[in-house]
Design a protein that fits this description.
binds 2-acetamido-2-deoxy-beta-D-glucopyranose, globular, 8-stranded parallel beta sheet, Immunoglobulin-like, TIM Barrel, alpha/beta, 18% strand, 7-stranded antiparallel beta sheet, 506 residues, 3 domains
Length: 506
């Protein structure tokens, strides 16, 4: 294989850098709240199922270019032609949290697995790369291995990034005659196992993707009711991580009522079936539930998997960041070791953010202990519209250490910065613990610069006496002097920026 940074590879990468692939591409984002990118989808001269795409709302935040007419995946879908929109409609019936009568009116099989997630993986949030936002359906062995090599070359592996995750569209639309998923021979000519071996040789781990329905969101085979066969195949290949999506859910698996314990819901049951299949394999596979924050997943996610998405697909917009943080702060008690609220992909390098907004994005994902799965391709990273500054944000050792701390499982949580401080949505002040000490994070949510202040004694666990040293986690430097517990600490924050501090006894 060519060295990733050889001149030839750089030239080839440069030549393939036209428009960003997420704009106006099949299965790419075409809308959503706050979305300012391309809203059209590719259409062929003869609109057919194969070459015409329409923009379908898959959630409040995300619309996606989907084929106008679905083709049949391995298992027939009982959903309407557009799986995403039909499952979203179903999803809206999930929202109530009140206890209902439904739990007794459904007959959950007593054989539904109750396996807990493996304790051999997923203690701290997953860090890595995911192909989707960079390549969509145009994924390939070459691109996945290039990403793996770049994790090493850019020092991201050393910083803690470990997962190289393949998303949707990696296989053929039909299973083989023995019912197995088949890697697309054009995209993965050597199969997935060969890719897994190479990724393992680099000291990294590999993720695969499937769906808890009859077909994936891009209409490839789903795993519902075929979990054991698929899990065994992935284990044989050496898979370390599974992202398990929520498209094309057959009608009889919908939840039309509420539950006292949503672990008994049909939604949870679909994910529990896969949890049981994974538990039967001879290797730990981290299980990432991608059911879009439906069915009160934060109440049962930790009994089934290692992380769970809190929303529909993310959007590369500031509005999405504010929304997902606001959602997440209502469910921070769900977060602990082996249990992580997934705020969805890191959009650094995507969208049109200021450096301050990127710092806030990264910091919030780190201090709320979300998995951090980012994108990049040669166009973004190595030929650096994704700047060294952005790589520097992703590699910030102190924020990553907070995310990956092995002695404290809890995230930072909102606190009242001083008596009478205003409450905002999302909150602006957060405090948490790590093995290094106490941390404070402050988001300036407004579009102009502001002075932020907090009283040190208002920070939970610092106490009301003594004096403290304050360390800036972005610069890696201590602020000069020391601060009494009664001191009013102030900082001037640029619009949409986030301050990150470690506070220890002076
Ligand atoms: C839905 O129908 C399929 C096919 O008959 C069946 O295997 C499955 O158990 C049903 N799901 C539920 C939740 O009843
Ligand atoms: C990106 O942001 C800058 C600064 O806010 C703005 O001037 C520019 O028009 C934006 N570009 C796009 C493509 O939205
Ligand atoms: C702390 O300082 C800020 C900024 O100077 C000021 O607005 C605020 O009133 C002060 N708070 C206290 C409790 O002194
Ligand atoms: C950010 O700046 C705005 C405008 O001055 C202010 O209203 C907001 O409270 C600030 N946020 C923080 C966290 O200081």
């Amino acid at each position: 294989m060519l060295l990733p940074h050889s001149p030839l590879v750089l030239l080839l990468a440069f030549l393939s850098c036209f428009a960003p692939v997420w704009a106006n591409s099949p299965y790419g984002q075409c809308g959503g709240s706050g979305w300012s990118g391309d809203t059209t989808c590719p259409s062929g001269s003869k609109p057919t199922a194969a070459n015409s795409y329409t923009c379908v709302d898959s959630s409040e935040w995300y619309s996606q270019c989907l084929q106008a007419t679905s083709t049949s995946a391995g298992m027939p879908s009982t959903a309407a032609t557009s799986g995403v929109s039909s499952t979203s409609t179903t999803a809206s019936t999930y929202t109530s949290t009140s206890a209902g009568t439904g739990a007794s009116s459904t007959s959950i099989s007593s054989s539904t697995p109750t396996d807990a997630p493996s304790k051999l993986t997923g203690k701290t949030p997953a860090l890595g790369w995911n192909h989707w936002n960079a390549y969509g359906c145009a994924v390939s062995e070459e691109k996945v291995l290039a990403a793996a090599n770049s994790l090493v070359d850019l020092g991201l592996k050393d910083a803690g990034y470990e997962y190289v995750n393949i998303d949707d569209c990696w296989d053929l639309q039909a299973r083989d005659s023995s019912g197995h998923m088949v890697p697309d021979p054009t995209k993965f000519p050597n199969g997935i196992k060969a890719v897994a071996d190479k990724i393992h040789d680099l000291g990294l781990k590999i993720g695969i993707y499937s769906d808890a329905g009859s077909a994936t969101c891009a209409d490839f085979p789903g795993s519902l009711d075929g979990e054991s066969v698929d899990a065994a195949l992935w284990a044989e290949w050496g898979i370390d991580y599974l992202k398990y999506d929520n498209c094309n859910v057959p009608g009889n698996w919908s939840d039309y009522w509420t539950y006292t314990d949503w672990y008994e819901s049909n939604s949870a049951k679909r994910y529990r079936q896969m949890a049981g299949a994974l538990a039967n394999q001879d290797r730990p596979i981290q299980f990432a539930l991608c059911n879009w924050g439906n069915a009160n997943v934060w109440d049962w996610g930790a009994r089934v998997g290692h992380s769970w998405r809190m929303s529909g697909d993310s959007s590369a917009t500031w509005l999405y960041f504010m929304s997902i943080i606001s959602t997440n702060v209502n469910h921070l008690d769900a977060i602990d070791f082996y249990a992580h609220n997934d705020m969805d992909m890191m959009e650094i390098g995507n969208g049109n953010f200021t450096v301050e907004e990127e710092r806030t994005h990264f910091a919030a994902w780190a201090f709320l202990k979300s998995p951090i799965l980012f994108i990049y391709d040669e166009c973004l990273f190595q030929l650096s519209t994704l700047t060294t500054e952005q790589v520097g944000i992703l590699k910030n050792a102190e924020l990553l250490a907070f995310s990956q701390d092995t002695t404290v499982g809890a995230p930072a949580k909102p606190f009242t910065a001083y008596s009478g401080a205003p409450t905002t949505t999302p909150p602006e002040y957060y405090a948490g613990q790590s093995s290094a000490g106490t941390h404070v994070f402050i988001i300036n949510t407004s579009a102009s610069a502001a002075t932020k202040a907090f009283t040190l004694s208002a920070v939970p666990s610092l106490g009301t006496g003594g004096s403290f040293k304050i360390h800036d986690m972005w610069t890696g430097k201590d602020l000069s002097g020391s601060y009494a517990a009664t001191a009013n600490f102030t900082v001037s924050l640029a619009a949409h920026d986030t301050a990150a501090y470690l506070i220890t006894t002076a």
